Structure formats: structure tokens, C-alpha cells
Amino acid sequence: MPDQDRTRPTDLPDAPVIVWFRADLRLRDNGALSAAAASGRPVIALFVLDETGASGRPPGGAQRWWLHHSLTALGSALGGIGLTLILRRGDPRAVLDDIINRTGAQSVVWNRRYGPEAIALDSEIKASLADRGLTVKSFAGALMHEPTKLKTGSGGYYKVYSPFWRAFIGEGEPRRPDPAPGTATAYDGTIESDDLADWDLLPTGPDWSGGIAATWTPGEKGAHERLKAFCADALADYGRKRDLPGVDGTSRLSPHLAFGEITPSDIWYAAAAAEGVAKKQLEKFHKELAWREFSYHLLVNFPDLRTANFNDTFDAFPWEGSEDALEAWHKGRTGYPIVDAGMRQLWQTGWMHNRVRMITASFLIKHLMIDWRRGEDWFWDTLVDGDPASNAASWQWVAGSGADAAPYFRIFNPILQGEKFDPDGAYVRRFVPELSDLPDKYIHKPWEAPRKVLEKAKVSLGSTYPEPMVEHKRARERALDAYNEMRGQA
Ligand code: FAD
């Protein structure tokens, strides 16, 4: 930064303010944007594609697709209040410095983010800009309560969800969402902006995004439409249907939340205001939103959540799965229909039902004995809702290595899980169409079907659909032996 920048006089009334958009691609309930608009200063709306890793793990393939469309939607929404979205690629520190130097901006505002790398980077930028006489303000939005604020009686952090939930509720009502600013003063100088198409966020050769595009409408408008539909159609029966992957029983707001196209506060209050919803159903839904907050609470207090076992006894776990086994899992060719349906839903649509996330994760970790971090990586690359806190916390939860985790020795039986939560096989038939003509009785265990039944359904095991790659009972015993071996070493 040249010297003259350090001596820049402060508080020029028409010096621009930069709104640095990150995981908050919305106008409504956007504290940073509202403050900038209300300041009366010229506003520069900026998004930086940080591929350096300084802001945290770069987005996976599915999220790159989403980001392209979400930025398109944000650009046009900002146009509606008179602003232009400036797109830049590179290290955010250098991009901000460049724009400040060229425009004389004197303040920068943003909404807080909570990944460990992002927190470190934002603190560094804040200190550096303040040193140079600029004003930096950050706002809440991504979470309903600040994740560091909730403390146990002894001043530590919560490792178990139930007391966390009680503390969360004890904090009082979440912040009320702000309306979108109606207008803002645009900065009228010229600022170089990249062409979004040049960022190559969309897949080519091959373009695998067809199923994702058919499933989702990225952007703030799409988020609010989905919220409205969920509150009208599914919330009233949420407690019963949320565990059934074959029906649309959940909100599917997770990718919109991951990109900050909508805030949890907005969702919280819209659900509370929905008509005809029993208190119990509403509480169940609110509690799920609080699981997301709990995941962030864990992440900010245990920043290595993605890479290190929360319970370090698991450092001695004798993982042994093969690359071939991992690939069969990726492709949804394990021979267990509910697992394969989940993995194919993930690949085709960029999302997987929560119940099936638990089943597929458990299968990888316990039936295939593959390190949970390999699964977490694959989910990160393929999920449109990949979230630094929820993904890592949930994988550790399933592995048994996490805070408040399911005990390792509770091993999901993929047949019984399928029969319980997809009793008519609707979900399996949709994503594993080669089994669609099997009767309900065999849809979750085709290998038990008599030859005639298989022939009638045009299923040839080992040819049209794989034989189970491991036998459940034996896999279970192997996993328990490994667990006991690990405990013996602890
Ligand atoms: P709804 O049932 O409608 O719930 C509403 C919101 O509450 C969700 O959008 C989500 O923000 C939050 N929520 C619900 N359940 C959970 C949960 N168990 N943990 C944390 N937040 C929750 N969620 C992600 O957002 N990103 C991830 O990367 C992610 N990875 C996961 C990996 C595994 C192995 C497992 C078991 C779960 C993972 N989850 C993740 C949690 C959960 O599966 C999804 O949040 C949920 O399926 C999203 O669908 P929905 O929006 O319809 O949820």
C-alpha cells in the first residue's frame, strides 16, 4: 500500500463504502448492505472469488455451479436497487486494496462468517484497514446467535446438543430479520469487473449439471419461494415426514442457507408464523435449525473439526477400506439399494436426504472401514449445500468420533433402515431404476428374491445390479473388532 493511502483524510462524506459479499448472496436481512445503503455514501458491491484458500476450503464442483447462478441472481437483484455487482478473482486482501486505492473508499462492511480460515483472514483485514484509517464494520446474519457467546456454566463450550438447545433458547428470540434496502447510491466511477463466464464455474466436458439444474433455483428469490412452499405444504407434518426420503417432507433450504441467500432468522420466523402448524412440529423444525447453529458452535471452538477426530481415541482406528470400495460407494454401486439410491441422488441432484446421509456415511465408515474424512471430502465436492460446520460435525457424529456422537458400535443396518424409512421403496425406485419392478418385499434386499421374481423384474444380480459388496453381518463384526482393537490401544 503506497504511503499516501495511510495519510488519506478520513470521513469524506462522499467517499464510497464497499460491501464485500461472501456467503451472504442476498438483499434481505443483510446488515452490511442495509448499513451501506443507509449511510448515503456511494456503494460498491463486491464479490471476490478466492481460490487461494485464504478464506477457507474452495467450493466443490456442485457449489461452483450454484455460485455461478447465485451470483447472476444477486447481480440482477442489486441492479433493482441501482447497484452493480463487481466481480473479482484473487486474494481478497489484494483485491480490496486495489479497489480502495482506485476509488478512495473509506469504509468496508461485511457480514460475519465462521470458518476458521475466514475468521483469521477477516480479522487480519480488519486490523490492516483500521491501521490505515479505514472504518470496518461487520454484521450478524449467518447464524441466529453468535456461536462464541453461548457458554456452559463453567465457561466452556457445549459438546452435547440438548444443553446447547436449552442455552440457545435461553438466549431469547433470534434477531429479527431486516427488510431489503429499497434503494442505494451507486458509486459512479468505473471499476473493472470480471466476466462471470470467465470464471469457469459451470462444468463442461462433461456437463454433469442437468439433474442439479432441474432440481434447484439458486438465488434469494428461489430461497423464499421454497420457504413459502415448505411452510404451506410440509411443515405441519414435518415431525413425521422428515425421516422419509421418498416424500418431500423437509425444507430443502440447506443450499440457500449455505450461500446466505436466506438467513436462519428469516426461516425461523416464517415457520413460526405459518398457519395450522402444531407447536410440536414447529419445535422439531426449529430444533433442526439449531443443529446447524450447534455445528458452528463446535467449529468455532474446535477449528480442526474437518481434519482431526474430536475424540482423539479415534486416531488409532485401523481404517482399511480400498480405493475400489470407495469408488463403488461414490458411484452408488455397493449392492445395498438404500445406500446406492442415496449416492445417486447426491450425484444427480447435488443433495441427499438427511436420513440417507446418515445411512450412506455409516456404510462407508463401518461397512467399508473407510476413514470418515474421505467421505466428508466427497460430500464437499458433490453437495450443493456443503457447509464447513455441518458437514464435518455430521461426519464425525456418524463416525462416533465427534462431540455428542452416535456411539461407534451402533451400526446402521442398511436393509432395516431401508424397510423402515422407505417402506414402499419409492425412493429406491426413483434413483435405482434398474430395481424399480421388484416387489416391495425385496426392494431393499434383492439378493433374497427368488430367481423367478428377479427374472420378472428384469434384475440380474452381478450384471444389471451389483451383488452386495460386503455381507452385513460380517461387516458389522469386522467393524466392532476394529473398534475394540482401537479401544485396546487407547
Ligand atoms: P430440513 O430438515 O428442512 O432442516 C432445515 C435446516 O436445518 C437445514 O437446511 C439445515 O440448515 C438445518 N439442519 C437440519 N438437520 C441438520 C443437521 N443434522 N445438522 C446440521 N444442520 C441441520 N447439512 C448441510 O447444510 N451441509 C452439509 O454439508 C451437511 N453434511 C452432512 C453430512 C452428513 C454425513 C450428515 C448425516 C448430515 C449432513 N448435513 C449437512 C445435515 C443435514 O443432512 C442437512 O442439513 C439436511 O439434510 C438439509 O436438508 P433440508 O434443508 O431439507 O433440512
Automatic annotation (TrEMBL):
It holds the Pfam family FAD_binding_7. It comes from the Bacteria. FAD binds at residues 238, 250-254, 285, 385-387. Residues 15-144 form the Photolyase/cryptochrome alpha/beta domain. The record marks 319, 372, 395 as: Electron transfer via tryptophanyl radical. Signal peptide: none annotated. Transmembrane segments: none annotated. One of its GO terms (biological process) is photoreactive repair. The keyword Membrane does not apply. Keywords: Chromophore, FAD, Flavoprotein, Lyase. Binds 1 FAD per subunit. It catalyses: cyclobutadipyrimidine (in DNA) = 2 pyrimidine residues (in DNA). GO terms for molecular function: deoxyribodipyrimidine photo-lyase activity; DNA binding; FAD binding. It is an enzyme of class 4 (lyase). The keyword Phosphoprotein does not apply. Its cofactor is FAD; (6R)-5,10-methylene-5,6,7,8-tetrahydrofolate. Its EC number is 4.1.99.3. Belongs to the DNA photolyase family. PANTHER family: CRYPTOCHROME, CRYPTOCHROME CIRCADIAN CLOCK 5 ISOFORM X1. This is Deoxyribodipyrimidine photo-lyase. It comes from Roseitalea porphyridii.
